[in-house]
Amino acid sequence: MSASLLETSQPDLEEDAKDFIQEAELDEPLDLNGSKPPPKPSMELKPLPSGLKYTFLNGDGETPIIISDQLLEEKSIKHIAILENTALS
């Protein structure tokens, strides 16, 4: 008798699975192999303290880094090149 009580109190998982599959079939399929990547969220750069400045890896405007504004242009270029090479590895 106890087994029959357990059986009646348990939800029918097979029926729930069938309902879920039928609902899923009604929706349009997702195109996971689309050629367009999802849009990137917009980025807001905050003001920096004096002595620092933003620069961007790969010149793309999407990967900001913060460096000293006291560096000579030659040193800045070398630092950026190192960071770009490290990011690719």
Explain what you see.
With about 90 residues, the protein is of the alpha+beta class. The protein has one domain (about 1-30, about 45-89). About 45% of the residues lie in helices and about 10% in strands. The protein contains three helices and two strands. The chain has helices at about 1-10, 15-25, 75-89; strands at about 50-55, 65-70. Strands 1-2 form a two-stranded antiparallel sheet. Strand 1 and strand 2 (about 65-70) form a beta hairpin. The longest helix is centred in the last third of the chain and has 16 residues, at about 75-89. The chain is elongated, with a radius of gyration of 28 Å.
At a glance:
By secondary structure, this protein is α+β, with helices and mostly antiparallel strands. The chain contains three helices and two strands, in the order ααββα.
Q: Uncertain regions: pLDDT < 50 for 5+ in a row?
A: none
Number of spatially distinct domains? 1
The average pLDDT score comes to: 76
Distance between the termini: 66 Å
Count of alpha and pi helical runs: 3
Strand order of the biggest β-sheet:
1-2
Largest sheet: 2 strands, antiparallel
SSE string, helix = H, strand = E? HHEEH
Helix content: 40-55%
What is the beta-strand fraction? 5-15%
Helix/strand-derived class? alpha+beta
Judging from the principal axes of the Cα atoms, what is the shape?
Answer: elongated
Using only C-alpha atoms, the radius of gyration works out to 28 Å
The number of strands is 2
